[in-house]
Inverse folding.
């Protein structure tokens, strides 16, 4: 059974001002694949997830998780999880 992989790819891409096309070219993927990943319609392979993390200079767990991410405002402003 394949579990959904949650991600913050769209947020990080927007923050870094990187287009889907640019990211796709840099990691050897199709730009539509990046969109599918961002929308949760496709789970990246481990290889692709690691290449994306390396591109942004972040640990893979900063971008991808098996658990939903807490909203960034909660993390930044310290709201506790229920």
């Amino acid at each position: 059974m394949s579990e959904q992989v949650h991600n913050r790819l769209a947020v990080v891409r927007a923050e870094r001002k990187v287009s889907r096309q640019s990211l796709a070219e840099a990691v050897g993927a199709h730009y539509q694949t990046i969109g599918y990943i961002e929308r949760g319609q496709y789970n990246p392979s481990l290889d692709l997830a690691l290449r994306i993390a390396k591109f942004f200079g972040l640990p893979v767990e900063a971008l991808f998780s098996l658990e939903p991410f807490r909203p960034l405002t909660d993390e930044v402003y310290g709201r506790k999880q229920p």
In short: The chain has a mean pLDDT of 91. DSSP finds six helices and two strands in the chain. Helices lie at 9-16, 20-27, 31-38, 46-56, 60-63, 72-77.
